[in-house]
Write a structure and sequence with these properties.
- The protein is mainly alpha-helical.
- Helix content is 75%, strand content 0%.
- The chain has 3 helices and no strands.
């Protein structure tokens, strides 16, 4: 029913994270400088909310551009072929406008 490799890996990761958490709890708060208590929550907020949303927009935008360009190339839109010929001509390659 379960894949033994992934189940074993999950158990190992769980035990490792549990152990690291328990070891991290042994460190006293006085060990860290005072600015860490201000910087850590701010860093968490930036990574959790702002950066996550920005990365989501960038990734979704890139996927949308890829889908659009793939659709245009599959449908062989004439203007794209002309632009490709112009770019290749500017680069010094042979101009093959009609593919």
């Amino acid at each position: 029913m379960f894949n033994k490799v992934t189940y074993r890996r999950g158990v190992i990761e769980g035990v490792t994270l549990y152990t690291l958490g328990r070891l991290g709890a042994l460190i006293t708060p006085a060990f860290f400088p005072d600015w860490v208590y201000v910087a850590a929550p701010l860093l968490f907020l930036v990574l959790q909310y702002l950066l996550g949303q920005i990365l989501t927009v960038v990734v979704v935008g890139a996927v949308a551009v890829g889908v659009y360009l793939s659709g245009v190339s599959l449908l062989r839109v004439e203007e794209i072929g002309l632009m490709k010929g112009i770019v290749l001509a500017r680069l010094g390659r042979r101009n093959k406008i009609f593919l």
